[in-house]
Amino acid sequence: MDLTEVTYCGLYCSLCASRRRIPARAEALRDSLVKEGYDYFGKEIPTLAEGWDPFRAVLDHLATNPCPGCRAGGGYPTCAIRDCARERDVATCAECDDWPCEKSEFLKAYVNLKGDVERQREVGLERWIEEQEERLSCGFCYADIRLPRKEE
Fold it and tell me: What pLDDT digit, counting tens, does each position of 116-130 carry?
């Protein structure tokens, strides 16, 4: 079974904006700016001149470097869940008897995580992956239903 798109916590990488939506939107913005002549004029506009090159570098990076996925080192760099799952030799938190735990607390903004983990337990990981591909084909993205972050 291919787990490339499956995070250790129980999300699906392809449903994350960093993996699909952000690169596409960054590319569209970059293409639009080029079409409108900003590659030439962007540096000449006083309010943009100083930040134009760094902005273009970030935009180019976002357009061409989507998140590689949880299992390839993407996502939160010091993810305790990834470390724990590897330690316990589980594919996702759905296989762990201790879930939910304090490590999953930082994901509470992902309101569908609990349901996804329960669904993995109910139908198995392989079937769950098929269901996530169906969600993807319908345009679903976690960012559409994620709770806003609280400023601390």
Answer: 999 999 999 999 999
